Amino acid sequence: MAHIDYYFSALSPFSYLAGTRLEEMAGRHGATITYKPLDIMALFPRTGGLPPGERHPVRNAYRAQDLPRQAKKAGMKLNLKPAHFPTNAAPSSYAVIAAQNAGGGHMGALVHGILRAVWAEDRDIAQEDVIRSCLEWAEFDPALADSGLLSGAETYAANLEEAVAAGVFGSPFYITDDGEKFWGQDRLDDLDMHLSGTL
Predict the structure, then answer these.
(1) Beta bridge pairs of residue 8
(2) Does the predicted TM-score (pTM) go above 0.85?
(3) How many angstroms separate the CA atoms of 53 and 46, rounded?
(4) Nearest-10 crossing angle of helices 107-119, 128-137
(5) CA gap 79, 87 in Å, rounded
(6) Tens-place pLDDT, residues 38-69
């Protein structure tokens, strides 16, 4: 059975635009997924990147054109300047970690719900009520927002170190158990072909 390590930031618009295609693909191929939320702002300087606010204006201008195009292609609502960006992604990331450990809900729905809250609903994912509603929507116990904070913080930090060691430099980033790496929601078709053995 194939396995995918999914590294992502809860603040990433490109992870949002991936929707739940990863989960649908994994279902078709019988693959498992480990969700590894990480601190993207800490990842960038360690892997040669810059946060959007520090990038050259021409790069940000391209991003401002490309994101709406990608949203239109995906048929998804996107607010290019969300009300709560950037915000503290750690609390929602801890909730993802706790939910994965607890089981019983739908991880893809949880992750997408958190990302959608930022990029389509203008909600602040640093707020407990927002995190609880995302957990509940994905059929997890909302109380997970309050539990496992210490272990969540430890795993969140460990995910960053694992990502750097594995060659991750952006979000979303997918690594299969045979070492193939795919960066960006626009490489999900390539991942799909790889899992099917055609690429």
Answers:
(1) 37
(2) yes
(3) 17
(4) 140
(5) 15
(6) 999 999 999 999 988 899 999 999 999 999 99
